[in-house]
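In this section we walk through a basic example: taking a raw amino acid sequence and producing a predicted 3D structure, encoded as discrete structure tokens. The instruction is simple. Fold the sequence below.
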Amino acid sequence: MAMPAATETGGSRNEAEVILEVHGLTKVFGSGRAAVRAVDGLSLSVRRGELVLVMGPSGSGKTTLLTLIGGLLRPTSGIVRVNGLDISSLKERQLTKFRRHYLGFIFQSFNLLESLNARENVEAALNFAGIGGRKARKRATALLTDLGMADRLRARPHTLSGGERQRVSIARALANDPQLILADEPTANLDSRHGHEVVELLHDIARQQQRTIIIVSHDHRIRDVADRVLWLQDGRFEGFDEGDTQQSALLDTAGVLYGASPQTASPQAAESQRRASQPVAEPISAAPAPSSAVKRGGWLPWRRA
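The resulting token sequence is shown next.
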């Protein structure tokens, strides 16, 4: 049985097009007194070219949400639509085909095949989607070259740095030209420099290629490039967004007192903690500048003239 075709919202592709819609999404593990509502009635709408960061303490439901959006878990109730297609109603075979062609996954642990070199790891994703031979090799080479890996095409994963392995992982996620990319803690296993490179790279992919990216992470560096920051607590969104000064300050405090709900902190405490955590020489700002107002591109070492 053929998978239903995804539809285009509004009949045309543009920046305002909704790529991801989640309505009343719930996932319950177990039953009776042992039941755990890992995701509890979430609703979310994300547009083309938008980068959304989902933060929250461990066990808040971040990874469960990501796997539900990616069709790796079946929801207990609710709907997930990607580019107009209700994936929650697809059969397993249809879901597999959907993931191959419409989604890109970036994992914390890279998940590269050690027996294959960098280019072959990217080619493998294309092979699973039915693209092989010279076409797959050309596509993999082009992607890795764009990501600064032209001299590492034949390198095996164990010879690559953490940042290089994550770039191979990102190239693999882009291989089949997906509209939606899901990233689970993409900087968690990277040092500060390589983590910063990956953050900037994801920002460039969202902006320049107009791909929609959903990231779940504890890494506060990603806040600087995200269009929206959502706080997930006990399976529910608390409604945090970088556009609100007080909420941004509360989220800063939550980052220092990690694991506590942002709503338990007072605005006064948030401001005091934020000032104390910043170097004296740096100016104090109530909230980060919106990512659209920050000039980017050209920062990455392999993109410098």
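Looking at the output, two observations stand out. The radius of gyration is 20 Å. The helical segments are 62-69, 92-102, 118-128, 133-146, 162-174, 192-209, 245-256, 267-277. In the next section we compare this with other chains.
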